[in-house]
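Reminder: ligand-aware prediction takes two inputs, not one.
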Amino acid sequence: MSKINIISPPLYNIPWQDCPENSELPVWRYSENPIIQRNPVQGVSRIFNSAVQPYENGYIGVFRGEQTDGIPYIYLGRSMDGIHWQFEKNKIRFTDENGREFMPRYAYDPRLVKVEDTYYIIWCQDFYGAAIGMAKTKDFRTFTRIENPFLPFNRNAVLFPRKINDKFVMLSRPSDSGHTPFGDIFLSESPDLEYWGHHRHVMSKSSNWWENLKIGGGCAPIETDKGWLLIYHGVTCTCNGFVYSMGAALLDKNHPSVVLKRASRYILTPEMWYEERGFVPNVCFPCAALTDSETGKIAIYYGCADSYVGLAFTTAEKLYDYILEYNCAGEGEQEIGRR
Ligand code: BMA
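Here is what comes back for the chain with beta-D-mannopyranose:
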């Protein structure tokens, strides 16, 4: 196994199960999945595509809750072990910079990223079509909206967990307003989280069948001494609709629009009943990863069939070895200029 070190604080109580014998893929599922069942909160029929962070002595998370009127919003949840969650009854109330209430018409697929001493929630909302919503909090009591960072149409925005070359860095996936049949991952930089520029192309969909329609950022990139480990989603189209799998790549540490390596094979694909059967069948949609730098453990939270939350595990070594073994990054992916 190759040596690779995660650069983050240790997380001694990371949710964990050892790898079962004969696991062909580098990622394996929690045996008690799904960890969140249907109708988890009054007025919410399904929770999926959600993100978590260590907080105080346990964990906190932002959860996509599909209300019983069909409209998605973001709900706050707390957990001691990262597996059993208690949700707040009411959706998160955002305020704008002047303290006035700001509630998007809908909000879905939240990511939660801590940069320095602030937590950022990034989601998809309506701004003349699908666009990126963003808010910040330090205490999970007040949530201040950051005005539309990007133009429509866009989805799957995820921040890097630290500034790079003194800039905030965000991945996103420009799209259309429907069930987008295309899409690559791009990167943008900002000195202040308000003004974004230096937009660069990172990765395209590929000729690998599982990701030959579109791709999109998933978990916040994981910093290692070899570069940024990116766990993302890749989509293919079948006669019965889209299939969402998880993929992995390694981005350059100082110039993360450069793809150093990229696995030609998925790291997880819908196989279990809770991934294959639900409101939208055949969806594994990664949104967050917890990491323990002492052991290299990684716990991935992913949405299952737009109906449940699942937990899956890997290690930095296993993921890195798999990316090296099945690397298909092309030379064009390694220039900065074209981007
Ligand atoms: C995408 C998003 C995700 C969803 C996926 C599969 O376009 O809407 O929230 O999980 O489709 O339905």
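Residues 49, 108-109, 179, 244, 280, 283, 285, 303, 306 surround beta-D-mannopyranose (CB under 6 Å). The two ends are 33 Å apart (CA to CA). We will return to this case in the review session.
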